[in-house]
Amino acid sequence: MTGELAADYPGDLKFLNFLPKPIREARRPLLAILVGWLTAIIPSLALAWLIGMVAPDVPQPQFDVKGLLAVFLLAVFSPVVESLIMGGFLLILLRFFSPPVAILASSIGWGIAHSSLAPTWGMVIWWPFLIFSTLFVTWRERSLLAAFAMPMAVHAMQNLPSALVVAYGKPF
Hints:
Enzyme class: hydrolase
Keywords: Hydrolase, Membrane, Protease, Transmembrane, Transmembrane helix
GO molecular function: peptidase activity
Mean pLDDT: 87
Order of helices and strands: HHHHHH
Largest sheet: none
EC number: 3.4.-.-
Strand content: under 5%
Protein name: CPBP family glutamic-type intramembrane protease
């Protein structure tokens, strides 16, 4: 499997080739985390803004926690638990499907799961989970620990700004 994810995919599976190579190569962990976070957060913020413009009255996810507990739950606990669940499912999916298909199935599944809490949330969440799933599959080449740690780190960075807003109110 070494180098498999960084390869250019043939045919219908080329949809992952547009992702930056640092998240498709198990080489430089800090660069992969930074690029993974930027690749996850910028499009998801753009999707959230677009959905907010098109459907401003659609309910948003509500969190009934504040302060440090909110930061812990959203930026630490959630990324750890969701990455463990995501990784477990990806390990199963990879037994039956190619990496790109497993990654896409994972991201769509997470979008659907988050839509159950707020209808449009899944439309935003699927993108970061595409990145998290890609990181998991990529870093699985190195080790199972790296496969779980890389998406956890990016997921925590992804959730931190929202966690701070939930914890302490709007920054502006």
